[in-house]
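Q: Trace token order:
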Amino acid sequence: MSGSNAATPPDAAEWGDFAADLDIAYAYRQFAGKSRDEALLLFEQSDVLSRAEDLGAMPAGPFRYYMPVFRDFVVSPRIFELNQGLYASTAADAFLNLIMRRLEDEPQVIEPLMPELLPAVEYLAENQSRYDADEDVYGSFFDVLAAIRESLRVLSGGPTIPGPPARYLHLKPGGALPDLSALAPFRAVVMIDAKLTLTWQIEVSDWLVDSGCLHVMPWGKDASLWDHSVAMANLEQCGFGPIPKEAQVVTVSHEVESLGEVLWFCKNCANHPVVALQHTVLIEISDVGDEEMVLRAYADA
């Protein structure tokens, strides 16, 4: 029996013609015949990136047997003890990247495992800060979770979801902030074409979070500064305690991308891990707004 429920390690036949493939042959030398406990010890005592590459090269049987071991290693408290905890962020990122890569390249190999792996992906998304995985380096684990869920939706033959309709809003720097609570829960692209005071930026971040925005995409001048102000607004909203999954605000800043790329991302990727977002708001912060241009760019994205 192959797969994660197999009682014994995969035999040589399940590895295929590993002698003809150097990557599989190397993975075979590392893992062949190892029990789950022995494989877990291998993860603890060797380079996690190399072990992730081994898993990426494995045929279906060995992969399905050893991938849950990688999962157990990544979510174990032990991960925070290895190399004084510096191993944790690398291991989490390698685990997520491996899932994404196999979903893209060989979905038939990993899809049967996803019910076992998805809770670990959700756990990593909720605990990215605990893993000390800086978003500037590793990106947002919530975005990876959303991308994995979208891949699974496509693989399951779920209906194609068209890009959401959008509402345009122009804000003058330092100006009044209208009530958007009727649109909650919503996503927002914040296009900044003006120099803003930090005080007003914080005010806008608080307003977005309090209005029910659960996915913020800043674009333009100093866009990366919004990651922190939105995160602080989210924490303040929850009394600086634990943030429930349904209240977690996803923030993805886009300082170097084109507006078209950001709007495409908004239409195709800007989901929330647990909440279905009902509306999209395109917020232009500038002295003079251009509603026609923004809506046309969104339609073309």
